[in-house]
Design goal:
Layout lengths: L15 E5 L3 H12 L3 E6 L3 H4 L4 E4 L1 H9 L3 H4 L3 E3 L2 E5 L6 E6 L2 H7 L4 E4 H15 L2 E4 L3 E5 L4 E4 L4 E3 L2 E4 L6 H6 L11 E9 H4 L14 E3 L5 E9 L8 H10 L7 H16 L8 H30 L5 H15 L15 H11 L2 H23 L8
Parallel strand pairs: 1-2, 1-12, 2-8
Antiparallel strand pairs: 3-7, 4-7, 5-6, 9-10, 10-11, 13-15, 14-15
Length: 393
């Protein structure tokens, strides 16, 4: 691991961050904050031996560029596999519709790569890196309650841990979500199940109704036992009444997951750290937190809307629209084109344009831009109001 790669600006005033949750989001946030000189304590309720997940993890270009900037490219290479293309087929009949092969020139422009890895392997890399960076990671430390006014976490053991800022990285069912949301806020009801997982090919072979899925896996991941990785979207159904192939696949796949889920949470940590790399006074803390929300909320909302639109596009029910979509994809494939690419009589598809927008985004650059456009201006205005003259970077 190259900790000195692209060494960032160091905060003039280091403070303590208490990160609640030691998954990949919490660990990545800890790495980002340690890189800019802050003290970090991570509180994770699960013991070390129980934390690792067995599922798969997507690392799209907007995420891999962050890891590479942190000097983790060599750490990720042995545990990841580059995505070459996306294959489309109908779920009901397994009919092949076409492929979209990633344009390598396009990926180079994003300064990242599209790779797959196992969640457990990525967690191990981030855990090791966070420890080497100097973060304090306490496994088996379950947070029972939080006091946001004093930035204090009370553990189930009765111990209290205090910092200057609390970072919630404990998921949708975590204790920090209850602090942030009003009592009347309800969880949105999901109308789809989206499975993004890795499945041993030997297991798929045992299920006759899944045999067609072997023909066009999205990606093979290296290992002794060949792995098939599928992205399957289907209407939310009770397993007792669902179609047999979905029922068998979901029994193998485990929990549903979103395409950009990991990327969004790690972008969050990268932006937070970039903002707080400029900290030289405690009165900047609230300003940086407001800036964080102003930067991240619109981005997360846009990506969420795009993912929902993609799912709806892939889940078109039997109809003229579905037939048009399938015919268009098959016609492009027959012509040797990518299924999301533009044709001579048609501009680039909106789906592909939006994908490019998501991939090209640089979270750390956005935070730097905010500092140049607004942060420095506020600091200089405050300095003038104090009748003083000083220099910031």
């Amino acid at each position: 691991m190259a900790l000195d790669a692209n060494y960032p600006n160091q905060a003039v005033l280091p403070i303590r961050f208490v990160v609640v949750g030691g998954g990949i989001a919490g660990l990545a946030c800890a790495i980002a904050l340690r890189r800019v000189g802050h003290e970090v304590i991570v509180l994770e309720k699960s013991p070390l031996e129980e934390k690792k997940s067995s599922g798969g993890c997507r690392i799209p270009p907007n995420l891999s560029k962050i890891f590479y900037h942190w000097g983790l490219e060599k750490d990720l290479q042995p545990i990841s596999f580059k995505s070459q293309a996306v294959t489309f087929q109908t779920f009901e009949e397994g009919e092949f519709l076409g492929q979209h092969v990633w344009d390598q020139d396009m990926l180079r422009e994003t300064r990242g790569e599209f790779v797959f890895t196992r969640h457990a392997d990525l967690w191990t890399v981030l855990y090791r890196t966070a420890v080497e960076c100097g973060a304090v990671i306490r496994m088996g430390a379950e947070v029972e309650s939080l006091d946001p006014m004093t930035a204090t976490a009370r553990l189930k053991s009765g111990e209290t841990v205090q910092g200057s800022v609390i970072v919630g990285a404990d998921g949708v069912s975590g204790v920090t979500r209850g602090i942030m949301l009003d009592e009347d806020d309800e969880e949105p009801v999901s109308r789809v199940n989206m499975y993004s997982t890795i499945i041993p090919a030997s297991e798929v072979a045992k299920h006759d109704t899944l045999s067609s899925l072997e023909k066009h896996p999205l990606v093979y991941i290296r290992g002794k036992d060949p792995i098939l990785r599928f992205i399957v979207t289907a209407p939310r159904m009770d397993k007792k009444t669902s179609e047999s192939r979905l029922q068998e696949l979901s029994s193998l796949a485990g929990d549903p997951g979103a395409i950009q889920e990991s990327a969004m949470t790690i972008e969050d940590g990268a932006v937070l750290a970039k903002l707080f790399s400029h900290l030289h006074s405690e009165d900047q803390i609230s300003s940086f937190l407001f800036a964080y929300q102003d930067l991240r909320q619109p981005r997360c909302n846009r990506v969420a809307r795009k993912e929902l639109a993609d799912i709806q596009y892939m889940m078109l029910p039997p109809s003229e629209l579905q037939e048009m979509r399938n015919s268009m994809m098959k016609a492009k494939h027959a012509a040797g084109l990518n299924v999301l690419a533009a044709t001579e009589d048609m501009e680039e598809s909106s789906e592909w344009a939006e994908i490019m927008d998501v991939f090209a985004y640089d979270a750390e650059d956005e935070a730097d831009n905010w500092w140049v456009e607004w942060g420095l201006l506020r600091d200089r205005a405050k300095a003038c109001s104090w009748g003083s003259s000083w220099w910031t970077t």
